[in-house]
Amino acid sequence: MTTPRVGVLALQGDVREHVRVLTDLGADVTKVRRPEELAGVDGLVLPGGESSVIDKLSRAFGMREPLRAAITAGMPVYGTCAGLILLADRITDGIEGQQTFGGLDVTVRRNAFGSQVDSFEVDLDIPALGEPAVHAVFIRAPLVEQAGAGVERLAALDDGRVVAVRQGSLLGTSFHPEMTGEHRFHALLLDMVRERAR
Ligand code: GLN
């Protein structure tokens, strides 16, 4: 395959950081705000930010249904933090009326670490990525509280709480690799895009 064409959903959130990582990895990157832009990419990142805002804006911009259709069609998508929330089939502690795009057979709790713990950092061993450990930054982060049988648990905290998952072409992390120079999750997304093009 030629250079993978990937988008970053650019309605709200840390879009620039994801664009930088994907560009570093050699992808052809587009900021996606409109259905036509989504139609031009073969993979997508849902950034960190505020999931309820991204949800509302996606509806206002006519992006909700195109995004759901792309996910259903098997487009590789990687969600970080708010992006993970948006990929979850079920959420707890959403705001009134909050919706997700869905696709991942998981229940995700928003702001799962409470208002006392705004953010923290921890090193995570992630067998699917190998050495070295991932330095993970959590910011008002969600947790995967429940996952269906088809969901692979990629990473957990010491107490067993799940913070990274994969199911088919969907990947989600509670934390923000795009903020720490960690490129391996985005590389995994690009691998999935190339694989699908074969
Ligand atoms: N708490 C945010 C939300 O509910 C997620 C925070 C983040 O993406 N860093 O969407």
What brief labels describe this structure?
198 residues, alpha/beta, Rossmann fold, 3-stranded mixed beta sheet, 12 strands, 31% strand
Describe this structure in words.
The protein is an alpha/beta fold and 198 residues long. The protein has one domain (5-197): Class I glutamine amidotransferase (GATase) domain (Rossmann fold), CATH 3.40.50. Helix content is 27%, strand content 31%. It has six helices and twelve strands. The chain has helices at residues 15-24, 35-39, 51-60, 64-72, 82-87, 184-197; strands at residues 5-9, 28-32, 43-46, 77-80, 88-92, 104-109, 119-124, 134-139, 143-147, 152-156, 162-167, 170-173. The strands form three sheets. Strands 2-1-3-4-12-11-10 form a seven-stranded mixed beta sheet. The chain has a three-stranded mixed beta sheet with strand order 5-6-9. The longest helix has 14 residues, at 184-197. The protein is globular, with a radius of gyration of 15 Å. The chain starts with a strand and ends with a helix. The protein binds glutamine (GLN). Glutamine (GLN) is lined by residues 48-51, 81-82, 85, 110-111, 139-140. Residues 48-51, 81-82, 85, 110-111, 139-140 line the site of glutamine (GLN).
Low-confidence stretches: none
Ligand identities: glutamine
Through-space gap between termini: 7 Å
- Helical content stands at 25-40%
Number of helices: 6
CATH superfamily: Class I glutamine amidotransferase (GATase) domain
- The helix/strand class is alpha/beta
Instruction: Please name the CATH topology.
Output: Rossmann fold
Could you say what the CATH architecture is?
A: 3-Layer(aba) Sandwich
- Shape from CA axes? globular
Major sheet details: 7 strands, mixed
Strands side by side in the biggest sheet: 2-1-3-4-12-11-10
- Strand segment count: 12
Count of discrete domains: 1
| Estimated share of beta-strand residues | 25-35%
